[in-house]
Amino acid sequence: MGLKTLFPLSLAVAAALSVSACANLGQNGPTESYKAQREHPITVDEQAATLMIHVAPDSVSLMDEDIARIDHFAARYKARGNGPMVLSIPDGAPNRGAVSRAVAEVETRLDSHAVGPNRLRLSHYRASGSAHTAPLILSFTQYVATPSPCGNWSEDYAFNPRNTASPNFGCASRNNLAVMVADPGDLVAPRGEDPADVQRRETILERYRQGETTQTERAEEESSAISQVNQN
């Protein structure tokens, strides 16, 4: 077999070896295929958030501290609420007159936070006979993220010839994600898109029709220029 025959054969063998090398994960295969979300999963569960509003029989309106608590609860619902908010109203309590007035106040307050009739559900419960101030109860369902525990240092890191990932690898970042995520429900399914701003869209379209620029104008303090120092 001459050199002219060996050279094409060598090229063919080299090409075959290179293709097989691409298909083989090699020694770093376990590391390359490592998935932190599989090794350190985040568990997302539903949890009930509740707010009890005690109404005295002789009260005329809600106390300022109760209004502040309702405001905070409504903000939590808008950030993490899943499904409707429920307002549970006691039946048969001695403070039923004050409760009726308080219900109207609570509904008005929630409506000011965009938690209106389409997002608020009313329910009733039987008050205990000894309850002189049966409370109003606001509740909603929220998602809570629980990360997997870290701290598995069971392997010997002084001897790792295959350069594989440790059991604890990626655990800290997964724990940080579980703590920092704004709404754990986003880990279950992506949220829907917010509706488009129709008024803004009409403004841009009208500028386009008039031949005007459609970009937002920048204020002088938002622009920057190269310093003129030592330019002369």
Automatic annotation (TrEMBL):
Composition-biased stretches (Basic and acidic residues): 207-218
Disordered as annotated region, ranges: 207-232
Signal peptide as annotated in the record: 1-23
Keywords: Signal
PROSITE patterns according to UniProt: PROKAR_LIPOPROTEIN
InterPro entries according to UniProt: Pilus_biogenesis_CpaD-related, Pilus_CpaD
Protein name as it appears in the record: Pilus assembly protein CpaD
